[in-house]
Amino acid sequence: MSHHSQGSTSTSNTITAQHQHEGGSCPVVGDTHDYCPHHKGDARSPCPALNALANHGYLPRDGKNISVFDLIRALREGYRLSAALALILSIGAVFILGQFRKISLADLARHNLIEHDASLFHRDAREGEEYAPRCPDCSLLKAVVHQGGYYKPGRITLEDVANIRAKREMHGSLDFTHAEIARGEMAIAIGVLGGPNADKEGLDLEVLKTWVKYERLPDGWKPDHTQGLYHTYKMATVVRDRMDAIKSGKLKNALDDEDATEAAIVMSVAHAPQIPPTSE
């Protein structure tokens, strides 16, 4: 085994060994932006974008005591969002949550505030539950990877997102606000991680999978362009217009060609109404 491999293995073992992120800092990776997954006592949200920022130290690594200014700075430094886009997302988040001093990432799991049903990666909240599931659902993620790449093999495009979202919302439509959030979050993810031509070229599905499953940025990755408000709006509009055309019957959803695939079955189960467990 090479020295490099030994060092990589040692580092991996160290960050996964149980430790605390007291005060929002990590005793293993220090003040760097190296990856360290969440540990016991850390707060995380259903949003892989913010969880990844915490796992890389752009936000407090414990996910707690986050101010609106912390959010703005992290979005700008970690993902290179424009000032306008970072400002709108951050102020919008604290306004919707009704928490204007500090927030915890766990607050974002409060059902039907920012979090919403028909997620691409999380199961719906159980009926009557205040908080939605925080961790991504492996079967849903597998379905996205399976259903993506229809237009560009190995890459998820805006057109793929529209097809998948239209399929999801067959099991439960969203109100206007949450529909906009759902489209916007994927437009930002593809735009930031996919590069400056992501609106046409899409995003590598393996990068998406790592980002969602491990809440981790690709090794050595740095944003190579500024993701602006207007460009994000245009990308989200591509998804919205295509979804509208599919729902109105003007356009056939390419995923309708699937004959009761595993992915389609997973979607049906994931978004079916859930009944809270009862104690015997």
What does this entry look like structurally?
The chain is an all-alpha fold. Helices cover 47% and strands 1% of the residues. It has eleven helices and two strands, in the order αααααβαααβααα. It has a two-stranded antiparallel ribbon. Helix 5 packs across helix 11 and helix 6 runs antiparallel to helix 7. The longest helix has 19 residues. It starts with a helix and ends in a 10-residue tail after the last helix. The N terminus and C terminus are likely disordered.
Q: Which terms would index this structure?
A:
280 residues; mainly alpha; two-stranded antiparallel sheet; 2 strands; 1% strand; globular; disordered N terminus; disordered C terminus
Strand fraction equals under 5%
Question: What percent of the residues sit in helical stretches (DSSP H or I)?
Answer: 40-55%
Total helices: the number is 11
Strand order of the largest sheet: 1-2
Shape: globular
How many beta-strand elements? 2
Radius of gyration (CA) equals: 19 Å
**Which residues sit in consecutive blocks of at least 5 with pLDDT less than 50?**
1-8, 272-280
Look at the structure and give the mean pLDDT. Answer: 89
Structural class: mainly alpha
Q: End-to-end distance, in Å? A: 54 Å
Short note summarizing the structure:
The chain is mainly alpha-helical. It has helices at 3-16, 48-55, 68-79, 83-97, 138-147, 158-168, 176-194, 198-201, 205-214, 229-247, 262-270, and strands spanning 155-156, 203-204.
Summarize the topology.
Layout: H1 3-16, H2 48-55, H3 68-79, H4 83-97, H5 138-147, E1 155-156, H6 158-168, H7 176-194, H8 198-201, E2 203-204, H9 205-214, H10 229-247, H11 262-270
Antiparallel strand pairs: 1-2
